[in-house]
Known about the structure:
51% of the residues lie in helices and 6% in strands.
Amino acid sequence: MIAGLFLLLPAASMILLLFLPPADSLSSSWLFIGRLHPLLLHFPIVLMPLVLIFEILGRIRFLKEPTRAISLVLLAASLSCIAVVLAGYLLYASGEYSGNLLMDHFRAGICAGLGVLVTTFLFFLCQLTAGRFRKWYLTFLLLTNLVIVHASHLGGSLTHGQDYLIAHLSAIFGTKEKALKPVDEMLVYEDLIVPFFATKCISCHNEHKMKGGYLMTSYQALLKGGESGQPGIDIAEPEQSELFNRVSLPADHEDHMPPEGKKPLTDHEIAILKFWITSGASTTLKVKNLQQHTEMAPVIRDYLPESARLNRRLLYLKEEKEKLKKQLGALAEKLQISIAEDLKTSGNFFTLSMKFPPATFTDEQLKALQPYFPVFTKVSLVTSDITDDDLYFIGNMTNLRKLYLQKTDLNGSGLVYLQQLPQLEILNLSFTEVDDASVLQLIKFPALKKVYLFDTPISTEVVKALRQHQPTTEILLEEGPYN
Ligand code: HEC
């Protein structure tokens, strides 16, 4: 019974975890424990079904006296699940993963942990009360096993299966270290700064989402600066650099970067960035040079493990991108279409176009592409036999920005499917049969900047009406671009 009560303490802590905001970045030694999560979680995953099996074997009298075994297994499951939840929380708080799937897994994981503790508690309660709570205990045992399956499934999806697990196990044992550059060869800009920009800044300062007019995806853009008109980095007067200033402001200042609520740069990251800017922002400055600098040496020493972690993560993403490219390449070959990387973006984005001479393009083909819809930013189906109904599929390409549909048999009845595309900026409908009524749908398109309507049956009144109602959209009566 005492053991049972003892379990209520961690159970209460787990409930608290559910409501706690994530801790800020943790030191790498905590992260080490966090990375044990994928290793430890196997214990409760094996032990809880084992309890279920023991119960069944006891019931069919295959096992004579399973109570003792069950109490031991339940205690082991409880202890291991406390460790799993703790490690999982540290991994979560490290900010290494984010997104809805992570949150779902986090919640399911804590529920599974609670389930194990409550089941164990009920089991001991049954021992004390001559089985009065046995139904409750069995119900919880069953439910907990189901929740564990669900949580593991989410965790598995989160980690993209085997690869990921191996990557992180090897992160613990250091075998993947080989893939990273040796410290002696590391460059300050490329290997220290770019990785933390990539995780903390690029989400708002990329080709698609250029907050403050500032692009941070290349060295040249970094120097240039944004809407403020100040250079991002002023080599002659480094301390006047907009980038320098934005990260130096007190964290609660309105202009501080990143904005409030986003994961801030750590003190080490700020120190490295400032040192790099004031020393001339050279892309060839080596980490080795900083290690010889009295002030920077301890910063670098402390920061290297974190930097390795970020680089490893980027490496993983790069591998994922290569995989995606291969899959899309094979699909393009099969469907006789062209798929190419969208070089204007730094993310995992692609363009889709017809080969010349165009083969038929059926909705079967669109369906085959469906799992990849979010990766397409530009689609050119000029002269294809796409139908208005097929636009339904195109309407699910959530990152689509440019769509070329000229010289097709569209009559415009499917344009309604496209109005939910949040980022569609350019639409070419020249040489199609789109009519007045369907073209009026364009008023509802949220991001449309240019529409080409050359040689279509639409009337001048409708063109006028569109121009009046949607002044942010240019209505162009010219052929327009093909890709
Ligand atoms: C959540 C989105 C977001 C993130 C993340 C973010 N920024 Fe910004 N950034 C903005 C917005 C919005 C502006 C424009 C408003 C302003 O000037 O404060 C801006 C403006 C800037 C500017 C000024 C550009 C100019 O010349 O006007 C700099 C420099 C900058 N950010 C640097 C950074 C750095 C460095 C990081 C990462 C540590 C970062 N930002 C992360 C949203 C973001």
